[in-house]
UniProtKB/TrEMBL annotation:
HTH cro/C1-type domain: residues covered: 26-80
Species in which this protein is naturally found: Gryllotalpicola protaetiae
Keywords of the record: DNA-binding
Protein name: XRE family transcriptional regulator
GO molecular function: DNA binding; DNA-binding transcription factor activity
Recorded GO CC terms: cytosol
Pfam families, A to Z: HTH_31
SMART domains: HTH_XRE
Entries under CDD domains matching the protein: HTH_XRE
Amino acid sequence: MSEPMPEPTSRFDRQPLWRHMLGDRLRALRHRRGETLTETAKRAGVSTQYLSEIERGAKEPSSEVIAAVATALEVTLLDLTIAVADGLRESQAAPVHAPHGPSMFALAA
């Protein structure tokens, strides 16, 4: 039986992963173009399954694959990278709630 995942202890434990943010951005770009996974994957020269895994954040694609998918979606690698970085920055701007109740007193002691 596996042990439960430990609760995050700092804001760094709650950071989204690059591959998840990249996948979300690629999916949004593909949807904006009204394309299927198959259409985009074919132009990028990757399998539909692999593109699906990238979009879900299940795979960590090489820079060459990221560039190929970006080109297929008619976006520059620079613009894609900036969009992902902006998404990461926005996720870090979310307020981190301070502990309250009995645990607050334990931390203060």
